[in-house]
Amino acid sequence: MKLIRRKSGTFTVPGDYLGVIEEFLPGGGTYIDDGIIYSSSTGHLLVDSHNRKISVYQKTNSPLIPKEGSLVLGTIVSIHNKNLNVRIFQIRDKPLFNPFNGIMHITDVRRGYVKTMLDVYQIGDIIRAKVISIKNREFHLSTQENELGVIHSKCSFCGDKLILSQNSLKCPQCNKPKWRKIASGYGKKDFIKLF
Ligand SMILES: [Zn+2]
To answer: What is the CATH number of domain 11-58?
Structure first.
């Protein structure tokens, strides 16, 4: 959790810890989660000590930050049985100067049961995902919808780019099918903009 100076004028971004409800009344540009007040906006802090109220005033031309509902692109940087971590490097078609950390739980991979993350994704995969919630500056992602999932992947054995073949991915070298939650348009569109 990032601690910021709770002084009027301090720059904050969504998810910054602002205090607890025992200390402050939450004002505009904030949200409460479990008694803790966080910033929900990019902007500057306004601490009204007289009324014990804390608010965030939005800046115009705010830097690009994923919001709830944003479509993002990211690289999978670590995988565990029940969740994985993503480095978000692009929001829609806009590359980010500083990447954000995304996390995905196994229940948000796709509709239906997934036994382990290792069955559907691998480290290094590039995925298109949707931000479903923001907590503690972590962006919780889902790939349940059709257009979401892996958009680029390499074979873990030979490093060849996996190709789409009858609704699954295949390595042209090893010829083995690879299970993935594949995004519609795998290997196209967003990717061309990037490389
Ligand atoms: Zn291969």
So the answer is: 2.40.50.100
